[in-house]
């Protein structure tokens, strides 16, 4: 299996409730290594660009408002099969459908305030992590 890198966000509902350490413990417990991490307050322009693929969706404006409502923690995660492994440990987008033990089952408040984001493919991971990190900031 290949060593991959994926992109992760701990969302404003997680920082507001002081859950970043608990969520990182679940991520690390799944065998993923946090090789870059920083706390930022996304601008509206950054959130609109990052979620550009959803711009025609009914939830887009609310999503941008939510993602800029407080600080987030952006991360790069590394490990074997990291993209799929991270999606498994996050659980389903809607916490009502998330499996026991997943981050969203444990912590998410709603489909919008769902605590974490993770890339859905290796290709998107490379694009997404480049939005927020220079190569020199990623220390494997
Ligand atoms: P995320 O993985 O960050 O990618 C897009 C986000 O849109 C998703 O997680 C959800 O938090 C958010 N979202 C809000 N409403 C919906 C919805 N009805 N369907 C899918 N995603 C939604």
Estimated helix fraction: 25-40%
End-to-end Cα distance: 17 Å
Ions, cofactors and other bound molecules: adenosine-3',5'-cyclic-monophosphate
Tell me the strand order in the biggest sheet.
2-3-1-4
Number of strands: 4
Return residue spans where pLDDT drops below 50 for at least 5 consecutive residues. Answer: none
The largest sheet is: 4 strands, antiparallel
Instruction: State the assembly state of the protein chains.
Output: single chain
Strand content: 15-25%
Average the pLDDT over all residues and give the rounded result: 98
State the shape.
globular
From the alpha carbons, calculate the radius of gyration and give it in angstroms: 14 Å
- Counting DSSP H or I runs of 4 or more residues, the number of helices is 7
Indicate the structural class. alpha+beta
The sequence of SSEs as H and E is: EHHEHHEHHEH
